[in-house]
Amino acid sequence: MIESLVNSGEPLGLEAGSKAELMAVLAHAGKTRSVIVCNGYKDREYIRLALIGEKLGHKVYLVIEKMTEVRLVLEEAERLNVVPRLGIRARLASQGSGKWQSSGGEKSKFGLAASQVLQLVDIMRKAGRLDSLQVLHFHLGSQCPIFAISPPACLGLTTKAHVRSQTARSTTA
After folding, report:
1. Contact 15/39 with Cβ under 8 angstroms?
2. 40, 47, 61, 87: which one has the fewest Cβ atoms less than 10 Å from its Cβ?
3. Does position 167 have pLDDT exceeding 50, yes or no?
4. Of 77, 9, 76, which is closest to residue 44 (Cα–Cα)?
5. Total domain count for the chain?
6. Is there a domain that residue 7 lies in?
7. Are 132 and 85 in contact (CB under 8 A)?
8. Is the pLDDT assigned to residue 119 strictly greater than 80?
């Protein structure tokens, strides 16, 4: 699935939620200078691999989901002499409705609260890397039970979920 997408000639981005997925994405994105979005649990090795992808000419965005990731990114970027491209996964204050409503809002376990976003901006400013913050990433919720809430947003979530599930099926087959 990844190969056919990359070889289609269409401009596209790839998402990696783990070290294994990032290795697969980098292997298939070889010549295309793809946009790669890295999310999920990020240890030093995953961050280093993502930054190496940036050095290889890809536009690699590391989405910061926990404050502990910031120090690792700054250390590895300095060690590799590369300017990181960062996103922030924001934890929205509002909750959706439906089956997954309790997984959203201020008590969600994913993303940074508003106060943490401000703290991250301050850390990046002090490090001289404020320009590295380029993406704001958030989720409306695990499901969009009421389509009238935001049709374009729900359509985007549905499309992303479909592509991701197709990719998962092709990598396990």
Report:
1. yes
2. 40
3. no
4. 76
5. 1
6. yes
7. yes
8. yes
DSSP annotation of 92 reads -
User: Is the residue at 25 inside a domain?
Assistant: yes
Residue 30, pLDDT above cutoff 70: no
Phi, psi of 90 (to 5 degrees): -90, 140
Closest to 59 measured CA to CA, from 34, 84, 89, 86: 34
List all residues 6 or more positions away from 131 whose beta carbon is below 8 Å from its beta carbon: 83
The pLDDT assigned to 13 comes to 83
Q: Which domain holds residue 67?
A: 2-141
Structural domain contains residue 11: yes
Is residue 105 included in any domain, yes or no? yes
C-beta pairs of 19-22 under 8 Å, 24+ apart in sequence: 19/43, 19/45, 19/46, 19/49, 22/46, 22/49, 22/50, 22/53
Domain with 18 in it: what CATH number?
3.20.20.10
Is the CB of residue 59 less than 8 Å from the CB of residue 15? no
Local confidence band at 87 (pLDDT 50, 70, 90 cut-offs): very high
Report the predicted TM-score, pTM, of the whole model to 2 decimal places.
Answer: 0.74
Angle between helices 68-80 and 44-55 (to 10 degrees): 40
pLDDT in tens, 37-85: 999 999 999 999 999 999 999 999 999 999 999 999 999 999 999 999 9
